[in-house]
Design goal:
extended; 0% helix; six-stranded mixed β-sheet; mainly beta
Length: 794
């Protein structure tokens, strides 16, 4: 790749002289010696890091004036994988503990895919990565996460070694960190016991506790978290001297079949106490299956894998009869277990194969049905079906592209994963995408070819398509999804905005959308409109000149504790209007929900207290609801179980009673003050109070022969108030009012603190349940009052 850069000096007297006074230029570059500005140019041929200093001298006499400038740079090798950064330094880390991961990004700087065959770490460093799952496309990156777990105190060094299929391999990333003396180090930090029969005890496994401190450490307690694991130790007999150690012997006695987990918990007087050791084991039931799962390698669709075996062992003291062994979906099995008896201590074998019917991940299971405890036993199965022609990646996303212009090329790799040649009928891209390829008419077994894809949008907005490979392989045609954004006369970038979690009722910092006029004419903006919980301001004005850009600033003010979606719509006179930017954000905070939001109490005698009614307060938000206080007003009082806070989705009860001191229709509220939007939340309360007391509140006449009158039953009507009740009227109402009759001594008035009698009889006119009510109207509040009546005609 050709390189050119200028060095310019100001002032001084011509002619000028330029020279390299320290270091060296990259091989293939040269410096012009007399012109101003000077030019460093050429085609670098040797990769590496270079540092050099350039000196400028003029023609002043008797002593020329000079000036120097230092430069440095890196010449990347063509077709290499470049890790960045090239070195990592970790913070100090206690011995035996693992740091947070640091990230190395590996970029393919070549024009063809690179396959990373291995990534390894050395020393006290570990790594996980996304680089070894397949070829890395040109310009693409993968990630390597590196951790530091020091085994010794002091400076620790190592490397990440990246091996790939291009010249210059391997690439190295240097690593450094410092191990600190820790307090009490347990080793190992986890123990996995082998399968063990239920109720039996396996061989002990040992944990060593080492004092890496400079002072003695006293262990006060060592305990196991569940009964399946027990321990003995020599650690609790006295302090452990610096650099000294003690041992903990752990045994596993499973109580039930299946995976069992627990911990050894060591409590001591050192920093970081308590320390734990993770424990795991598998309880083997009367019939033990091993392994507990099978994972098959990727298999071409329609082809059958080599068999994998499951061993079924009788760990009990009595024979076990296996009734059936069954498999599901794309898995098959043969066995010597079915309809046989497995003697104590012996086993039988189940051989499982995988024949995928479709090119996707497949799951299933082996089910063993028998007469032992825990039947049926199962073994989960997994495998991946591979099409004979595999496309990678399976999707491409292009950067926004002006309408009518063509993007840079992106690549899809087509690999024949089968054992025979795949004949290619066609490889095409549809819609706004085009494809060329190196595949020809046939792809031999194991060979990879390249499909080059470009994007030429014909319209503004999101554009989608596919690469479609039609061939002789199973599952043909194979597809790779394509997407890109066409920038019309008015191009918006980006076309989507995602806001981080935002507290409900608060406004986020703004995010920017750039609106560019890519046409040769002025664009008139009619409106820029957001919706839902989003708002905008902008610098666009009413027109945007050709090639000009303005900015739309978008903010998010959530009203709900959930994901919210919306859009910015730009209405203008350009083709493709309106242009849209998709918006998403998540509201974060508590939401106080009351259910019900109001309570109505039955008519209540003045001076008495009603039965309580309940309102449930629920925090339907995604953050803690902090409750300041809850109080009631009017003739109502409340108690509650809410405390000072409610976690998300948690609920509490608010219990309200009605205790009227005067007659009439009364109202009040319960107020909940909290940190949720809309605080205070209100519960509206209503009730009617009366001074008219009726005892009993209901009458039941039992069975009564049709057409005959019952013995009268009496209701006592008492005026508990301090004034005379006026306008007293007593009637029988209800569905079967004709079956009941009343007489009374009340008249039209009842004096203060006086009582009268209402005598009711039941004369059923038909068989079956009969009901009605005595309805009493008066001036005592809560009128009319009712006394329910019931009886059965026989």
């Amino acid at each position: 790749m050709t390189y050119s850069a200028e060095c310019t000096a100001s002032a001084g007297n011509a002619p000028y002289a330029w020279s390299i006074v320290s270091g060296t230029l990259p091989t293939g570059l040269s410096l012009t010696s007399t012109a101003n500005p000077a030019t460093i140019s050429g085609t670098p041929t040797v990769p590496g890091s270079y540092s050099y200093s350039v000196q400028f001298a003029d023609s002043s006499t008797p002593t020329p004036q000079t000036a120097q400038q230092a430069y440095s740079g890196t010449i990347a090798a063509i077709g290499t994988l470049i890790p960045s950064p090239a070195s990592l330094t970790f913070a100090d880390q206690a011995l035996g503990t693992t740091s947070e991961a640091q990230l190395v990004t590996a970029r393919n700087t070549s024009l063809s895919p690179i396959t990373i065959t291995n990534i390894a770490s050395t020393g006290d460093f570990g790594e996980t990565d996304t680089c070894q799952s397949g070829p890395t496309s040109p310009g693409a990156t993968c990630q390597i996460n590196v951790t530091f777990t020091p085994t010794l105190a002091g400076t620790r060094t190592g490397e990440i070694i990246i091996t790939e299929d291009v010249p210059g391999s391997p690439q190295l990333v240097t690593l450094a960190g410092t191990g600190l003396l820790g307090p009490l180090i347990l080793s190992p930090l986890n123990w996995a016991f082998p399968g063990q029969g239920i109720g039996t005890t396996g061989t002990p496994l040992t944990v060593t506790a080492t004092n890496t401190n400079l002072t003695p450490i006293t262990i006060t307690n060592i305990a196991s978290s569940i009964g399946d694991f027990t321990e003995t130790n020599n650690c609790e007999s006295g302090p452990i001297a610096p650099s000294g150690y003690c041992t903990i012997n752990v045994t596993f006695t499973p109580a039930v079949a299946g995976n069992r987990t627990g911990e050894i918990i060591v409590t001591d007087d050192a920093l970081g106490s308590p320390q734990t050791v993770a424990l795991s084991g598998v309880g083997l039931g009367p019939l033990s299956l091993s392994p507990l799962s099978l994972a098959f390698a990727g298999q071409a669709v329609g082809n059958t894998s080599p068999p994998l075996s499951v061993i079924a062992t009788n760990t009990s003291s009595t024979p076990i009869t296996i009734a059936s062994v069954a498999s599901t979906v794309d898995f098959a099995q043969t066995n010597d277990c079915e309809s046989t008896t497995v003697a104590p201590g012996t086993y039988c074998t189940i051989n499982v194969t995988f024949t995928p019917s479709v090119p996707v991940n497949r799951t299933g299971q082996i089910t063993v049905t028998d007469d032992a405890q825990g039947s049926p036993q199962t073994v989960p199965l997994t495998g991946a079906g591979l099409g004979s022609l595999s496309l990678s990646p399976t999707s491409l996303t292009f950067t926004p592209q002006a309408i009518g212009t063509t993007s840079p090329t992106q690549a899809v790799m087509a690999t024949n994963t089968s054992a025979k040649t795949v004949n290619v009928t066609s490889i095409v891209a549809n819609h706004d995408f085009a494809a060329t390829n190196t595949c020809g008419s046939a792809i031999p077994a194991g060979v990879t070819c390249t499909i080059f894809v470009t994007f030429t949008p014909t319209l503004a907005g999101n554009r989608t398509g596919d690469v479609i490979a039609t061939d002789s392989a199973p599952a043909s045609p194979q597809n790779a999804a394509l997407s890109g954004v066409g920038l019309g006369p008015l191009g918006l970038v980006p076309t989507t905005l995602t806001f981080p979690a935002q507290a409900i009722g608060t406004t986020s910092p703004p995010q920017a959308v750039m609106a560019t006029n890519t046409s040769t004419a002025v664009i008139t903006i009619a409106s820029i409109t957001p919706n839902v919980a989003f708002a905008e301001t902008n610098t666009c004005g009413s027109t945007i000149a050709p090639a000009a850009t303005c900015t739309i600033f978008v903010t998010f003010t959530p009203t709900l504790p959930s994901k919210q979606t919306g859009a910015i719509n730009v209405n203008d006179d350009a083709p493709g209007s309106p242009q849209t930017v998709t918006l998403t954000g998540t509201g974060n905070g508590p939401v106080a929900k009351l259910s019900p939001k109001s309570l109505k109490f039955a008519t209540q005698l003045v001076g008495t207290v009603s039965a309580k009614q309940t309102v449930t307060l629920t925090n339907t938000g995604n953050a803690t609801l902090n409750i300041v206080d809850i109080f009631s007003s009017g003739a109502f009082t409340q108690t509650n179980t809410c405390g000072s806070s409610l976690s998300p989705i948690a609920s509490c009860g608010i219990f309200v009673v009605f205790a009227p001191a005067a007659k009439g229709s009364l109202a009040g509220t319960v107020s909940v003050n909290d940190n949720a939007s809309g605080s205070p939340q209100l519960i509206n309360l209503h009730g009617s109070a009366t001074v008219a007391e009726f005892a009993p509140p209901s009458l039941s006449f039992g069975d009564q022969k049709v057409g005959t009158a019952s013995t009268p039953q009496t209701v006592t009507f008492t005026n508990t108030g301090s004034t005379t009740l006026q306008k007293v009227a007593i009637n029988i109402t209800g569905a079967n009012a004709a079956d009941f009759a009343q007489t009374n001594t009340c008249g039209s008035k009842v004096s203060a603190l006086a009582a009268c009698s209402i005598n009711v009889t039941f004369t059923p006119t038909a068989q079956g349940a009969r009901s009605a009510a005595v309805s009493i109207s008066d001036s005592g509040g809560g009128s009319p009052q009712t006394v329910t009546l019931a009886g059965t005609g026989t």
